[in-house]
């Protein structure tokens, strides 16, 4: 079964003008009608770092989760953020960005990789105590622009460390859109075979024309969990000045359905969500 994770948080976080709380909530409520597996809806991080997400708790209070099929995921960058997020029973997953690149780990969370791994362990313990799950995003998982060491073997070392911490969900993340189809297939194939107890996802950034080949490459490697954002909005504001957008969800859906996958989505609600992006993002 294919799992689609819709990421309005990632789509919104780099927008310079503040999006009104009520507008954010209305958009996420509309997305909840579509039937995505999970909605990455917000983050509990420093408002100085990501000012767009400073109202995540308020947005959550405005969500209509009655009969919602989708689970909720919130990003955190430290233990304090995890503790804040875990106060809300409605949140199912906490996402933490662990980078393969030392430079990006410092830029993104103001911590070293060694310190970040300790944070992962602490968050994992908190999640287990609360009956929640942690999703670790391996940022710069397909290469980095800083000249830091990178290899598929290095990724495997990180996965091994996360496996020892009992992390069960890892999303391989192409933060700057450099992944090639061959590398995507290879990484997923090797990791999935080596760590069958872990569910691997793909959080890729891409130019629109490259999305189908990247989805197919992930499928070939055994990936069944894909992150995206409608119309490809978003990108990591901590990565580079020129943002490479998220995988456009509608393109992923078209690609997957052409491959014969039934995604169980409400297409009329999806169309309404697509219309709403023009209002939310002023596109």
Number of strands: 8
In CATH, what is the class? Answer: Alpha Beta
The level of helicity is: 40-55%
**What is the beta-strand fraction?**
15-25%
Low-pLDDT residue spans = 237-242
Task: Provide an overview of this structure.
It comes from Algoriphagus alkaliphilus. GO terms for molecular function: hydroxymethylglutaryl-CoA lyase activity; metal ion binding. InterPro entries: Aldolase_TIM, HMGL, PYR_CT. Belongs to the HMG-CoA lyase family. This is Hydroxymethylglutaryl-CoA lyase. This protein is α/β, with parallel strands linked by helices. It has a single domain, classed as TIM Barrel, CATH 3.20.20. 42% of the residues lie in helices and 17% in strands. The protein has 11 helices and 8 strands. The protein has an 8-stranded parallel β-sheet with strand order 7-6-5-4-3-2-1-8. α8 links the parallel β6 and β7. The longest helix is centred in the middle third of the chain and has 18 residues. About 2% of the residues have low confidence.
Give the secondary structure arrangement, pairings included.
Elements: E1 3-6, H1 8-12, H2 21-32, E2 38-44, H3 56-61, E3 71-76, H4 79-85, E4 93-99, H5 102-109, H6 113-130, E5 133-139, H7 152-164, E6 169-174, H8 181-194, E7 199-204, H9 211-221, E8 225-228, H10 249-258, H11 267-280
Parallel strand pairs: 1-2, 1-8, 2-3, 3-4, 4-5, 5-6, 6-7
Helix pairs in contact: 2-11, 7-8, 8-9, 9-10
